[in-house]
Amino acid sequence: MASQNENGFTEETLRRIWKYNFVLPDGINENTSPFDTTLSSHAAQGKPQALPVPGTKQPGYSEIYRNQCSPDKVISGYHPSVKTFYDAFLTVATTYPKRDCIADREYDQKLKKWGNYKWLSFEETAKRRTKIAAGLVHAVRKATGFDPADKKYIVSVYAPNCVNWILTDLACQTQSLPTVCLYDTLGPHTSEYILNLCESPIVVCSLANVPRILSLKHKLPHVKVIVSTNSFESVPGQFEPAGQSKKELLNVWANDQGVALYSLNEIEALGADFPIADRPPKPEDIYAINFTSGTTGNPKGAILTHANVVAAIAMGRHCLGKNFKPDQVATVYSFLPLAHIYERIAMCIIMSLGHRQAYPHGPVTEIFEDIQILKPTNVNMVPRVLNRVAAALRASTIEAPGLAGAISRKAHEAKLNHLYATGSPNHPIWDFLWSRKIRKKLGFDNLNSLVSGSAPLSKATVEFLKVALAAELLQGYGLTESMSGISVSQPEEPLAGSCGAVAPTTELRFRDVPELGYTANDKPFPRGEIMLRGPQMFTGYYKNNEKTLEAFDEDGWFHTGDVGTVDKLGRIFIIDRVKNFFKLSQGEYVAAEKIENTYLANSSLITQIFVHGDSTESYLVAIAGINPDSYATLANKVLHKRIRPTDLAALAATYDVPEVKAAFIKALNGSTGNLLQGFEKIKNVLLRFEPLTPENDTLTPTLKIKRPAAVKLFKAEIDAMYKEGPLSDSGALNSTPKL
Fold it and tell me: Which GO terms describe its molecular function (predicted)?
């Protein structure tokens, strides 16, 4: 495994990377409880949350912004005894050994159904991770001769969220072994690229992924051990002829490929027979290499250290501390992929505070079955899910006919006015009469807060969900390279839409982007590319000096590629992307991502949209993924039909009807008000249900649009839209077509 100096980084590249320095908030010492989340004070409501540092403005750049609670220094930790994630987990396991830690649902073979969650305590988790660590080390040593005491290697993990994923991650930390994650939507070529780049000798994966790795083995010279997170045991009562069990068949295949095959249970038993002492990591040691899903070319592996993790935990404690009290154990549902840094750091934050988290039993379409059983207090979400939840709730409440709809509209109006006046999503009367029923229906009986990341949510959606669920909905901003979030909006903010202020663990400034018309001198507040620096920032791209050097400027500031601004409170707003722009035939420059985000943030008609323009054309077209609930209402109104939102086949029959498309364009453009200029609004559209997916290679695994791939896939449809010409958005034909 390559260290930073072995990555081929030049002296200039190393000079630009943040140097580790352990800095604590004022007033923290050995006598401070490591579970106290009240030490980083939030600004009072209406007071600045982040401040420009006087005297730091330079030509082409804004002043440097820091959090108001630490304007003189950037924080990198939260307690003197915790300098690695290994320390953080050990602190909890020794302080609260009997507390619940992690859980999966059990499958009842007799009833053929999933049952309740089965919890492991922190003490049980600690014991199992130690045995698994010893087993992993023994298996790799036997297959390769490698020993982490002499040669650190990278453990690859290729499995969905589950208890065994967490146990593997914690086990690797006891031996200072970094991990790298693979996931289904990467595809075989990218998985092959990552495994070979990292020279990983071992892959811990789900049983379903064992054949995928074995089928690639002839291209993976470094892989010598495969560990299944699932048991190989047959279902009780199921007959399997001798020599034809899963384990026997896979063993034959593995032996042919020169691979040792184990289940995680076998690894744990091996570790019990051959125990080894912990080799704790140092802050500078690599915790993980997280590959960013680039929209073109091979992904880049962001090197993330234990120091980065601790800084990110400190960020989470500052931003989310009000929602996680030390004496009130939170129950967190973790369904977003742990392979992505957003959910992984959420796991680290929750675990460091001694709270418990549980994992899904199956696909994302069944998460609310889990939620009904678990009744979580906190859930990490993404707009793709929240938009659907909001649309379904609107349809059954404030958009419903009759008395139920009237009561819902009255409750919604009263709670919304209360939210604007106080910032609180709670209401003394309507929480009990209205929100309580909604929460119970979803399994959110105990819900405290939701956190959303990865893309913007509309102001209307944030406000509706806050009042309907009587819970906080917080939005954050961050990247893989910043160890996830560097900001999260505060609870009880009356006005929705921001990503909150930069946390005490990072500093921020804006760089002029004159080609897009953004400058640090813009009024009333600076606008430009967001530049980040501090202890949360990654320490380079694995074995990629060129991209690392490009990522940081001479003063160590990281180029995010995101264009943003702040308001009078210092809260961050994302408004554009640096590179996603093109020129139309009449000379106007168009920023596609800004337009897409504007549509997504202001219209409930869509769940995704890809805006396209061409230098030979004078207007924009789009590929839009419809939100069935809102779209059905529009289509039914135009066509005088009664199509149910769940009848996707009937909805699909309306997608190409000119009257529907025209009404859709009118409603979509109308939702943006004056946020878009005329040439920035689409004039024709292709309607589909989820046209953009990782499976058709138009989305990255983190759901960013791969523009060249999308243009290639939809070339015929784009050409047809331009041939059809601009659709009227002011009215439809007089006659109603028969479907």
Answer: ATP binding; long-chain fatty acid-CoA ligase activity; medium-chain fatty acid-CoA ligase activity; very long-chain fatty acid-CoA ligase activity
- Looking at domain 581-724, what is its CATH homologous superfamily? ANL, C-terminal domain (3.30.300.30)
The tens digit of pLDDT for each residue in 479-490 reads 999 999 999 998
Q: Domain spanning 1-34+49-84+282-354+370-575: which superfamily?
A: ANL, N-terminal domain (3.40.50.12780)
Nearest-angstrom CA–CA distance, 543 and 2: 8
- Terminal CA-CA length for the chain: 61
Dihedral (Cα; 427, 430, 434, 438), 10-degree rounding: 0
What single DSSP character describes residue 541? B
CB contact at 8 A, 359 and 379: no
Rounded Cα gap, residues 309 and 312, in angstroms: 5
DSSP line for 469-535: HTSEEEEEEEEGGGTEEEEEPPTT-SS-----BBPTT-EEEEE-BGGGTB-TT-SSS-EEEEEEEST
Query: In the predicted model, what is the mean pLDDT of residues 625-652?
Result: 92
User: Cα–Cα distance between 694 and 703 in angstroms, integer?
Assistant: 7
Least confident of 18-22, 452-456, 530-534: 452-456
Quote the CA–CA distance of 315 and 308 in Å, as a whole number: 10
Is the pLDDT reported for residue 343 higher than 80? yes
The pLDDT confidence band at residue 690, using thresholds 50, 70 and 90, is: very high
CATH hierarchy code of domain 116-234+243-276: 3.40.50.980
Question: How many CB atoms within 10 Å of residue 513?
Answer: 20
Q: What integer pLDDT is reported at residue 243 of this predicted model?
A: 56
Tokens of 608: 């995704």
Taking residues 257-275, report their average pLDDT: 97
The rounded distance, in Å, linking the Cα atoms of 488 and 473 is: 10
